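HUMAN: Would you supply a protein with fold tokens?

ASSISTANT:
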Amino acid sequence: MRTRLEAPAVEPLSIERTSVALSGATRAYPARSRSTDPTEALAKVTLSVAHGEVLAVVGPSGCGKSTLLELVCGLQEPDGGEASVNGDRSAAARLSQCAYMAQRDLLLPWRDAIANAALALECQGVGRREARRRAAPLFARFGLDGFEDALPGELSGGMRQRVAFLRTLLAGRPVLCLDEPFAALDSITRAAMQVWLADALAEEPRTVLFVTHDVEEALFLGDRVAVLSGRPGRVVAELAVDLPRPRPRRETVTDARFVELKEHALEALAA
């Protein structure tokens, strides 16, 4: 059963305000052999995300977080229940409105940074020169000025993730689905990238689903946090992060309210 812990009440979202919705979504994968059972990844997940909202989804490894994003993006279909983006339920319509950023940056090693970012536009039929022209202003705005011609092997892990995020933004989709994009980074770089992403989303607002297994990261970046149980993933708690933006990281993570919300999330994960 889902529990709403001691956080401000989350108002039900009207159809007009809802950008992404999962209603009773269930997903299972076929048995790998005759001697095994199907793997149930998600069980009756119901979530809504408002236009322009950042919903962070936190849960243990293997609880179906990535599957949830793929359902939203139209890369998979639920076995039961529904998934919709801006009211559209078909997989093709969902896919056309979502940009997906995987855990790995997936930069092409033979392309320089700006060409990697511009690839999202080229895939939409924009010419290479025009795509690079459109991508160029983002490099200065997001701290990559001077690295446009660098190959991926010449970039740090954090810089590679920035390029991957710019590629995701340049797809021009209203919904961003971010699948643990900082999981492979060291703790110092990861903290810096959390601040960078918060600033980037302030400049380029989108509706965002951000998946992580890090409670602190979820609370720092999210407007709301949904806590999933172990497999099969169920929503066991939703927390409204009632902290003002911008959020200076050091002051935020030591704030009494942040610590309280973190304790609630950890309690829900342990339940």
Remarks:
- The first strand starts at residue 18 and ends at 29.
- The radius of gyration is 19 Å.
